[in-house]
């Protein structure tokens, strides 16, 4: 590993959270009012603990977003807007993956293909470069990587271990062998090892099994993961197999991880289509964990699990039913920025 490069864990100190405000030119158009309510709640929750950096597609959208946030009592000094064009709002996947580089930072800009070419992504693929060119970041270099990868497809413990699903990376790069993909990830992300999961998926997820919908690292050699305890559910066998894989993983010194299984929400349907209501899609910020809530009895139990996995942090539920209509949740629309990065 490079002495001056490190990929920090999400629970390390942050300067801000990056988001992109939905608008009529995005896939949210048909339910814009509902999803804006979720964004207002999300930015309100973030700004209780740290600033939010909000991308807007132009001055009119900036004015609209600012008015919506002001009406909800959000502190305007905690919100910073940046005008930039984008196709959609999944900043976890199109935003920068940030490494600490000595006293500065390296913004990794992987090729964003909208999850294997499923949607238009020409503007989203330029987001990182445009943000860097706007001078938002202090002491940050920009590295374009000609390799398709989304931030939601990887998880790090901040100490050199990467967690991912082979289903996702193989789907993006079907002609590349596992050893080649592993080597590239470890080289670019400065990781000493990669743990691959072979199982795990969610109906209503078009990311090909992003790890951030399934299993997440927590401090102290812990893994929080989405479990399924309903043998009659279509996810039961796959998520049970994934739970077995996770139980067999070992830390760098050979110990089992401490495991925190999340409860399973009842099916959420939209016109007969199953939506991906995963509690694993939480966001860790300074002093808190923002938890996707679905108006389900399991919401409370999920909050208890996250409180145990992240002691000392407030658990803040955010209604994310409008987000899963477009096949993602809370973590998917956000990207944390490490402490000191935002100028």
From TrEMBL:
This is Agmatine deiminase. GO terms for molecular function: agmatine deiminase activity; protein-arginine deiminase activity. It comes from Arenimonas caeni. SUPFAM superfamilies: Pentein. GO terms for biological process: putrescine biosynthetic process. Keywords: Hydrolase. Transmembrane segments: none annotated. It holds the Pfam family PAD_porph. InterPro entries: Peptidyl-Arg-deiminase_porph.
């Amino acid at each position: 590993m490079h002495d001056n490069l490190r990929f920090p864990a999400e629970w390390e100190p942050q300067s801000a959270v990056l988001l992109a405000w939905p608008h009529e030119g995005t896939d949210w158009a048909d339910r814009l009012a509902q999803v804006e309510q979720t964004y207002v709640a999300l930015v309100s929750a973030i700004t209780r603990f740290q600033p939010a950096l909000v991308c807007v597609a132009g001055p009119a959208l900036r004015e609209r977003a600012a008015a919506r946030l002001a009406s909800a009592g959000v502190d305007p000094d905690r919100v910073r807007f940046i005008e930039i064009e984008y196709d959609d709002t999944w900043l976890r996947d199109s935003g920068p993956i940030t490494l600490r580089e000595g006293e500065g930072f390296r913004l990794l800009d992987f090729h964003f293909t909208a999850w294997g070419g499923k949607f238009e992504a020409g503007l989203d693929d330029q987001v990182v470069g445009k943000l860097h060119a706007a001078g938002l970041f202090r002491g940050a270099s920009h590295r374009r990587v000609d390799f398709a990868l989304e931030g939601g497809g990887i998880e790090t413990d901040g100490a050199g271990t990467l967690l991912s699903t082979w289903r996702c990376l193989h789907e993006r790069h079907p002609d590349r062998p596992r050893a080649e993909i592993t080597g590239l990830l470890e080289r670019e992300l400065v990781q000493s090892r990669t743990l691959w999961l072979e199982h795990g998926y969610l109906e209503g997820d078009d990311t090909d099994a992003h790890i951030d919908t399934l299993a997440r690292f927590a401090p102290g050699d812990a893994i929080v993961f989405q479990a399924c305890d309903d043998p009659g559910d279509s996810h039961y066998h796959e998520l049970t197999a994934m739970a077995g894989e996770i139980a067999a993983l070992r830390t760098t010194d050979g110990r089992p991880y401490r495991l925190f299984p999340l409860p399973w929400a009842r099916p959420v349907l939209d016109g007969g289509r199953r939506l991906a209501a995963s509690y694993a899609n939480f966001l860790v910020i300074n002093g808190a964990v923002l938890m996707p809530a679905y108006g389900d009895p399991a919401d409370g139990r999920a909050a208890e699990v996250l409180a145990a996995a992240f002691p000392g942090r407030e658990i803040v539920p955010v209604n994310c039913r409008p987000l899963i209509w477009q096949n993602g949740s809370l973590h998917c629309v956000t990207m944390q920025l490490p402490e000191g990065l935002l100028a």
